[in-house]
From TrEMBL:
Name of the featured protein: Methionine aminotransferase
Listed Pfam families: Aminotran_1_2
Taxonomic source organism: Chryseobacterium oryzae
Record carries keyword Methyltransferase: no
GO MF: transaminase activity
Domain Aminotransferase class I/classII large stretches: 29-379
Domain of life according to the entry: Bacteria
PANTHER family cross-referenced by the UniProt entry: FI04487P
InterPro entries: Aminotransferase_I/II_large (IPR004839), Kynurenine-oxoglutarate_AT (IPR051326), PyrdxlP-dep_Trfase (IPR015424), PyrdxlP-dep_Trfase_major (IPR015421), PyrdxlP-dep_Trfase_small (IPR015422)
Lineage: Bacteria, Pseudomonadati, Bacteroidota, Flavobacteriia, Flavobacteriales
Cofactor or coenzyme needed: pyridoxal 5'-phosphate
Keywords from the named record: Aminotransferase, Pyridoxal phosphate, Transferase
Length: 382
């Protein structure tokens, strides 16, 4: 019998998202766990994809991506954040945001390098750092405010610190970084060789007239940063798995060295469809209002329950504290909700390395109104 190789990720199993979706399917529960819409993408975008396939654009795209799409991205960034990226040399189309994150970490992190992350954290950061021999150092943001104490973060920095990973707006907490956060970050990295990975896939989903502050708005940060974004969140097409990385030319050159052996290139006709679709910025500028209506609908419906509604400033996730309802840990409570009350959620402990339990769960409200209505009805019975 062949001897299996020693696992490079011995502590990693099936993701919580897959687990809860499977449980939802087994028990015919409403799936508010995984972050994907249950409503269709715009028919115009689908038609554009079909058009480019029929026109014969079905072969490999260039390594960095199709130029028309990169030009639209550069325009979007300049209009939104007043920052300039050269389409040809500073923007790379990726197979989703997660691939861009993986490739950035692969580009930078070597054995013994330290990487600072902020928990609760998206689940791909830490395993990828470990794959390349890096060491993760964590700052825990805690309920109910999930704020950052930059004095503590400063003490995490050593001569081995290679990378700081930000997620803004943050999944799962829904919090956004403020001007004072960005200024504190500038102080920390000034005069160092620390790089920044800024995961901004929810940048266009920010509520209550708040502003998303992109890493690229700040020249002191832009010069050392990899800006990651995703069309899945922008256009309700998570299954297309198309995103991008924007970074200064020298960083992009190194990024593409890894990218070419990771996926090489991304779906050609879909890139061209997206390029055409983005010519009209109203196709994404409506998102904050669109999802705020869904957020407000869910929050209003849940006010009749004993859940504590935590702040949701961005993303399409609502965090709920349930300690007035149950004393079970969040994983057991999420299972109970799925099996007995037919609503699948994600336990917040999954976003902490030590599985810290704060009696908080996450709901996705990127759903049809009737889906949210049924979920509210079920949760109101608790």
């Amino acid at each position: 019998m062949i001897q299996l190789p020693k696992s490079k990720l011995p502590n990693v199993g099936t993701t919580i998202f897959s687990q809860m979706t499977q449980l939802a399917n087994e028990h015919q529960a409403i799936n508010l766990s995984q972050g994907f819409p249950d409503f269709p993408a715009d028919a115009q975008l689908i038609a554009l994809a079909d058009e480019y396939m029929k026109k014969g654009f079905n072969q490999y795209a260039p390594l960095g991506g199709m130029l028309p799409l990169k030009e639209r991205i550069a325009e979007k960034i300049e209009n939104s954040h007043q920052a300039i990226y050269h389409p040809e040399t500073e923007i790379t189309i990726t197979a989703g945001g997660t691939q861009a994150i993986f490739t950035t970490i692969a580009t930078l992190v070597k054995e013994g390098d330290e990487v600072i992350i902020f928990e609760p954290a998206y689940d791909c950061y830490e395993p990828t750092v470990e794959l390349f021999g890096g060491k993760v150092k964590r700052f825990k943001m805690k309920a109910p405010n999930y704020e950052i104490d930059w004095n503590i973060v400063k003490n995490l920095v050593t001569e081995k610190t290679k990378l700081i990973i930000l997620n803004n707006p943050n999944n799962p907490s829904g919090k956004i970084l403020r001007e004072e956060d960005m200024q504190e970050l500038i102080k920390i990295v000034k005069g160092t060789s620390i790089f920044i990975l800024s995961d901004e896939v929810y940048e266009n989903i920010v509520f209550d007239e708040k502003k998303h502050l992109s890493i690229c708005k700040y020249p002191e940060l832009k010069e050392r940063s990899f800006l990651i974004a995703s069309f899945g969140k922008l256009f309700h097409i998570t299954g297309w798995k198309i995103g991008y990385c924007a970074a200064p030319k020298a960083l992009t050159e190194e990024f593409r060295k890894v990218h070419q052996f990771n996926v090489f290139c991304v779906n050609t006709p879909l890139q061209l469809a997206l390029a055409d679709y983005m010519k009209d910025d109203s196709n994404y500028l409506y998102l904050s209002n669109f999802f705020q209506e869904k957020r407000d609908f869910l929050r209003e419906g849940l006010r009749q329950t004993s859940f504590e509604l935590l702040d949701c400033e961005g993303t399409y996730f609502q965090a709920l504290k349930y300690d007035k309802i149950s004393d079970k840990n969040d994983f057991d409570f999420a299972q109970e909700l799925t099996i007995q009350h037919k609503v699948a959620t994600i336990p917040f402990s999954s976003f902490y390395q030590d599985k810290m339990n704060e009696n908080v769960i996450r709901l996705c409200f990127a759903k049809k109104t009737e889906t949210l209505e049924k979920a509210i009805e079920n949760l109101a019975k608790l």
